[in-house]
Amino acid sequence: MNFRNLEQLASLSTEKGLTIGRLMLEEQSLESGRTPEEEFATMAEYYRIMKEAVERGLTEDTTSRSGLTGRDAQRVMAFGEGQELNLGQAAGEAMAYALAVSEINASMGRIIATPTAGSAGIIPGVFVSIQKRFGFDDEHMVYGLFAAGAIGYVIANNSFVSGAEGGCQAEVGSAIGMAAGALTELRGGTPAQAVHAVGLGLKNTLGLICDPVGGLVEIPCIVRNGFGAVTALAAADMALAGVRSVIPSDEVIQVMLEVGSSMPEKHRETAGGGLAQTPTGKAIMSSLRKK
């Protein structure tokens, strides 16, 4: 890739007169040796699977094999149909869609890791709800996925995207940044605004630990995806309104690396700390061992 950080990504996009998504498609094609059409078709298939996961999560039994989670997305949707959500319909749907995909993951269904399975609900939750709301076609959304991919590429090569390495900030935080930046571009924002959205989203997850109860990607992972989708919407709106990340987004990514590196091991996907070690968390783990 011809960019190593978000500043370079925004500058190169602006210099070439391309959106981040179109630039990433060009760069990906050069790196892989596949044609842009082939790369686009692959990403389009990924988006189809994301939409399928949303639909399945809203209509099928998503009870996990552990029995700990399932059908929360459907509960949120049903609640929203009966009365006005505090978030409003648009944000409420994004939250429900994110929960739906995360529940499909927990029930061993097919998802696209964006950037990981533990954070796989955030981008689909944002993208599918936004497409429905604004009537964007699939082509537009697929370019948005390339934009998200470019942002994820930068984060992965300068910090973490794995909870085992950097805590949940690395998984859910990265997904929020990817979704926020891509959404900003999908709504007509400039590359610079998209990059600011990344920093705005990431700053609010710094220090988030990875503490899955029983070592399963269920509690608290699924609800964090729901909250993450809402945070991404907020970050994109701020960026589109002209709010800047005063601390440059590349520096925020470096802080995530610093915080993750200093995080105690028990707070990095070991189920050895945090919510996993509460009395209830321990009781759940004990009951799971007996099954």
From TrEMBL:
Region (Disordered): 264-291
Cofactor(s), by name: [4Fe-4S] cluster
Lineage, highest ranks first: Bacteria, Bacillati, Bacillota, Bacilli, Bacillales
Annotated ranges, domain Serine dehydratase-like alpha subunit: 15-276
Organism: Fontibacillus panacisegetis
EC annotation from Swiss-Prot or TrEMBL: 4.3.1.17
Coiled-coil ranges per UniProt: none
InterPro entries: Fe-S_L-Ser, Ser_deHydtase-like_asu, Ser_deHydtase_asu
Stretch forming the signal peptide: none
Name of this protein: L-serine dehydratase
